[in-house]
Structure formats: C-alpha cells, structure tokens
Design goal:
N-(1-d-carboxylethyl)-l-norvaline Dehydrogenase, domain 2; homodimer; 8 strands
C-alpha cells in the first residue's frame, strides 16, 4: 500500500519501519516539527512536510500516529476526500474520524515503543476497527502483513485494553523505577533486580498472575510489612503506595 | 556439604533441588506440618521430621527457610551447638541468630519462587553475610556452587533490596493481576497483554526504567488520564491508585 504517515514519534517510527520492511511504500511523512519530520523521512527514505494541507493526496491510506489530544486538530486542518484515514490511539473512539472522513478506522498496535529499541512486529497484537466491512478487510490485510496477531475490537473494548495496559505496563515500569531509586539510596546497583523482574514477567506466560502472587502482603506478613513501612518513613508517597497496594493484595487473597 | 533444610515452602523446595543437583547432600527436612515435610523429603530423597529437637546433629549446615515471623520460634526450639546456621530471609537481620548460635549467617537467594515453576539457580543473585570471615568463606563456596551471581551485603542493604523487590516484583505482579481483572470485565482474554508485559520487562536489560517510561502520565496527557479515571468510577481503589502513580510519574518527569 501507498501510505502517508502523520506523526513522527516512537509509534510512527516503529510502524513505518515495519511497513517498509514488509514491502509497503511510505509515500510521505508529516510532523509538526521540521527536525522530527526530517529524521523519520530519512529513516523511511521518503519526502516530508510540516504543513498538513501540503500532504500529497496520492495515497491509499493516511495513518494518524499523534497523541490522542492532537488527533482532532490534525483532522480539522485539511480535507481527506475518499482516501482511508486511521488513527492509532488506544483511548480515542473511532467516531472522532466520522465528521472528517468517508472511509476510516483504527489501527492500534498494542505494544510499548521506546526510542532506539526496535520492536519485532510479528507478535505485536494489532487491534483494528473500521466504519465498513470493506474497510475492515483492507485493515485486516494490512495488519496481517506485519503481524500474526490481529484482533478485532470496538472502541469501548480498545479503551479498556489501553486502561489495562497503563496498569500492566506503564505503571509497572514506574515500579521498576521506584525499585532502582530505593537501591540507589543505599548505593546498590539496579543489576541485582534484573533476574527477578524478568522472572516475574516470565511467570505470566503460563500462570494467571493472581495465582502466582508472592511477597509479604499475600502471606499477610505484618512483621515484614511494618518493617518496610518504617524504612519508607522519609518517602510519604511511597509509604502510601506500599500500604495501598499491600492492602489490595491482602483483600484479593483473603 | 551435609545440609539440613528447616522449612518446606517454595524457597526451601527450589533451594533443596538446586543443592541436590550440585552434589550436596540434603540430610534431613523439617516442616511444621507432616504433609509438606513428607512431600519435600520425597523430592529430595531424604528423611523428614516435624519435631525440631529431633533433627539430627550430623550436619555441616542448617538452612532455616521459613517465613520471617517464624525464624525466632524455630531458633528457640533446640540448641544449635557449633554447627553453622543460616536463615534465608530478606528483611530479618543476621543478628537474630546471635543469641542462639556460634557460627551463623544469611543465605538469601534473590528470586521469586512459585509452586510448580522450577527456577534455574545459575543466574539467581545469592546475597550472603556471615558472622566471621571463615563462615563467610563457607557460604561463598556454597553459593558459588549453585549460582554465578554471588553478592555480599549486610543486613541493612539486604533489607533495602527486599523492599525494592516488593515494588519491582510483588507489586508489579499485582498490577498484572489488575490488568487481567480489567480485561475480564469486558470479556477480553489476558492473552493480549502478554507481549506488552514481556517487552516492558525486557526493556530494563539495556535501559534504566526511568528513561524508558511511556504512557499518558509521562506525556502529562490529561485527556487520556481523565478518560481512564472516568472508566474507573466503579473501582474507587483502582481510581485512587491510578491517580497516585500517574501523579508520581508526572512529578518524576517534570
């Protein structure tokens, strides 16, 4: 397909590279800033622009890969004719596209994308939705060309999936950062936590996490919990967080 | 070494199997309950007892692998003579052993142990501490016989390591469980979260987690955050947790 990428962040970059690798043509890249537009265009060997009205109309598909808040503004800055337009956002309903486009949908690769870390798309779940069954077929084909894991979800389900991911990915990563912070305080390197973090994640492949909970809270071990709360005396925010999550674990396993 | 294992939980089981595999002799197993003592003794092909005073004295080492709260009671139930005694607890100082034993230390394998999931000890950090340098040498040798990753930490450091692990492992696992819970509510299988969970963990191998934070909070994306808080209206505990962790991410990255 001839694709125009609107956005040049982590998702746009990884998705663009995956599409190119699978033989699609990224015709043009747009970004608000010249620098990021030029950088991604260089990686994808295509022209770029920072002016939405100047985007070429010679495409089969526009992929809007900007933050949820920017989607509305991007949509209002040009006319989209008959060409299909998709956004890539978890928590924005497909209906946001309806006032602007005739053929539209959502193409949501469900993964965490970080600068400089290439993601193998093959196993990334791609959640799709479209306004007609014909458009859904187009997106299905595109999704299958880059991933073996294509899922059909409506906007309500997708929003819940995104919410679940905030807990199980974004918040999890922040807990890793808290672990690193606590070790640094005593001059201990983060290295020691790595085998534990990897094993904790690996366990979910075969076991429901609720069945493999370990630690002082699931044993309701007040002695250890109180020791930890005392250690956190100088971190009221962490103390509060520790108490709250422990309480929820205790309630869940009671 | 001729080792007596006191305790028959997840840690005692995995440690016993690893020791056996590396040619040590588990002479005897003790547990409070007949059933768990017999089960572990069967796995380790050795006798068992449920009476602490009846444990044989023909050992080179006693390993106390019971919960933090039970260590004191175990120690007080027999005399330990000159034989070396170690406990395996993260948050209990080595000094708990001093009133009861002459040769003592701590042998703390830093990993999450779950029933039925065998752990490869080779890369598990084993944190050791002992009351004399001679005893430390004994523990060093033992630790090196099962792991390539042996670390010397004192009780204060070990306690902080354990605290960091509660955030980065036990609490993380509960966030996985919350993710599963939220998906179940909308009839969506946990399967879809697995690639994301594994990638989030994999990122820490090469990057500090604070540098690879993604999600609405690090972008301070109030639109998405407000949508998620609205979705959590019927879960006041999760709404509170969502707000708190998001706020901490926003503060960290401001």
């Amino acid at each position: 397909m001839r694709i125009c990428l609107i956005g040049a962040g982590n998702l746009a970059t990884q998705l663009g590279l995956a599409l190119l690798e699978k033989g699609h043509q990224v015709v043009q890249v747009w970004s608000r800033t010249q620098k990021s537009a030029a950088e991604l265009a260089f990686k994808l060997r295509c022209p770029f622009t920072t002016e939405l009205p100047l985007i070429s109309s010679e495409n089969d598909l526009y992929i809007i890969a900007v933050s949820d808040t920017a989607i509305g503004s991007v949509l209002s800055q040009r006319t989209w004719d008959d060409t299909m337009v998709v956004h890539t956002a978890g928590s924005t309903p497909m209906s946001i596209l309806a006032p602007y486009c005739k053929n539209f949908g959502v193409f949501y690769p469900f993964q965490t994308f970080t600068i400089g870390k290439r993601v193998e798309f093959e196993h990334v779940p791609v959640c799709i939705e479209a306004n007609t069954s014909q458009n859904l077929d187009v997106l299905k084909k595109l999704a299958h060309s880059i991933s073996q894991n294509v899922k059909l979800f409506d906007s309500t389900q997708r929003q819940q999936i995104h919410l679940a991911a905030v807990f199980a990915c974004n918040f999890v990563n922040h807990l890793y950062a808290i672990g690193e912070e606590l070790l640094q305080e005593k001059g201990i390197g983060f290295e020691i936590l790595k085998p534990l973090i990897l094993e904790t994640a690996a366990k979910i492949v075969d076991q429901s996490p609720v069945n493999s909970q370990t630690g002082p809270a699931v044993r309701n071990d007040k002695t250890v919990i109180d020791k930890h709360l005392a250690l956190l005396a100088h971190h009221p925010d962490l103390k509060n967080l520790y108490r709250q999550i422990s309480e929820r674990i205790i309630q869940t396993h009671k």
